[in-house]
């Protein structure tokens, strides 16, 4: 899909991997809708990109009305990139007792249910569009994590949520194929994000040393370029791309 001139919605787009992705797509000529829980941050990013801001929660079943408002402003929705997500660190059974069930449910709800909610709403709107010259009506890129396969101790909730996103790729792509809508997934490894940059420099160096090559943290712009490739390559479908420098996470 040629993304120049196309309307693409990016969730979690006001910071981290989502912000880098929104900037990459806008630089390629896409009209970008920025969705983030922070209204102020979303407006700031949308103003920078000349796009549209949505302040909302990806788990909100009624957020479709805001998506429709963005469509009225920027045109038919051709792309969705799901970057919104949260994490938690808790043992299933720790010194303080069992992991609170509500903590597990919250991560699953935001990461997995939120991804599916946005997928269903975006796909519903894409199915009615006229096909592009490639036969596509739209494309979706979801964000998983290497934790889906290499989940560490304390990552039960996070790994389960990202594993669900990985498993979603194939059935979603198969179901939406008849409409010409592709679904792919990027599973990033250890990336330089605002949260990770808060760690001491020596800790960051220690983490980077565990990555075979290149022996450094991933840059958000590298993730963004991978998302762009997923959107642009019309033959890429139902794929899960590990973007991790060949790292395999140890148990802890």
Short description:
GO terms for molecular function: oxidoreductase activity. This protein has 252 residues and is of the alpha/beta class.
Outline the structure in words.
- The protein is built from nine helices and nine strands.
- The protein has 252 residues and is of the alpha/beta class.
- The relative contact order is 0.15.
Write the layout of secondary structure elements.
Elements: E1 7-11, H1 16-27, E2 31-36, H2 39-49, E3 52-55, H3 64-74, E4 77-82, E5 93-94, E6 97-98, H4 101-126, E7 138-143, H5 147-150, H6 156-176, E8 181-188, H7 194-197, H8 201-209, H9 220-232, E9 240-243
Parallel strand pairs: 1-2, 1-4, 2-3, 4-7, 7-8, 8-9
Antiparallel strand pairs: 5-6
Helix pairs in contact: 1-9, 4-6
Roughly what is the average pLDDT, rounded to an integer?
A: 95
What fraction strand?
Answer: 15-25%
SS class: alpha/beta
Q: Shape from CA axes?
A: globular
What would the CATH topology be?
Answer: Rossmann fold
Strand order of the biggest β-sheet? 3-2-1-4-7-8-9
Per CATH, the architecture is 3-Layer(aba) Sandwich
In total, the number of domains comes to 1
Distance between the termini: 40 Å
For the record, what CATH class applies? Alpha Beta
What's the gyration radius in Å? 18 Å
Q: Kindly report the name of the CATH homologous superfamily.
A: NAD(P)-binding Rossmann-like Domain
Q: Describe the main β-sheet briefly.
A: 7 strands, parallel
Q: Enumerate the spans where pLDDT stays under 50 for 5 or more consecutive residues.
A: none
By DSSP, the count of extended strands is: 9
Level of helix content?
A: 40-55%
In N-to-C order, the SSE pattern is: EHEHEHEEEHEHHEHHHE
> How many separate helices?
9
Domain Ketoreductase: 6-189
Family: Belongs to the short-chain dehydrogenases/reductases (SDR) family.
Keywords: Oxidoreductase
Pfam families: adh_short
């Amino acid at each position: 899909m040629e993304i120049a001139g196309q309307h693409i919605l990016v969730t979690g787009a006001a910071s981290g991997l989502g912000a880098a992705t929104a900037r990459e797509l806008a630089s390629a000529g896409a009209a970008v809708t920025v969705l983030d829980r922070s209204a102020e941050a979303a407006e700031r990013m949308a103003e920078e990109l000349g796009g549209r801001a949505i302040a909302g929660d990806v788990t909100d079943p009624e957020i479709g009305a805001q998506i429709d408002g963005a469509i009225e402003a920027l045109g038919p929705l051709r792309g969705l990139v799901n970057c919104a997500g949260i994490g938690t660190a808790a043992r299933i059974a720790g010194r303080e007792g069992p992991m609170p069930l509500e903590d597990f449910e919250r991560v699953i709800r935001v990461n997995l249910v939120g991804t599916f909610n946005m997928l269903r709403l975006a796909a519903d709107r894409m199915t009615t569009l006229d096909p592009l010259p490639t036969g596509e009506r739209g494309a979706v890129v979801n964000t998983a994590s290497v934790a889906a396969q290499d989940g560490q101790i304390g990552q039960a909730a996070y790994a389960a949520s990202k594993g669900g996103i990985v498993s979603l790729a194939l059935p979603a792509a198969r179901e939406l194929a008849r409409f010409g809508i592709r679904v792919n997934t990027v599973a990033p490894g250890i990336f330089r994000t605002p949260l990770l940059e808060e760690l001491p420099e020596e800790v960051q160096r220690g983490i980077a040393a565990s990555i075979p090559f290149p022996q450094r943290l991933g840059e958000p712009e590298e993730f963004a370029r991978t998302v762009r490739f997923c959107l642009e390559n019309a033959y890429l479908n139902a794929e899960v791309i590990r973007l991790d420098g060949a790292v395999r996470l140890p148990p802890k």
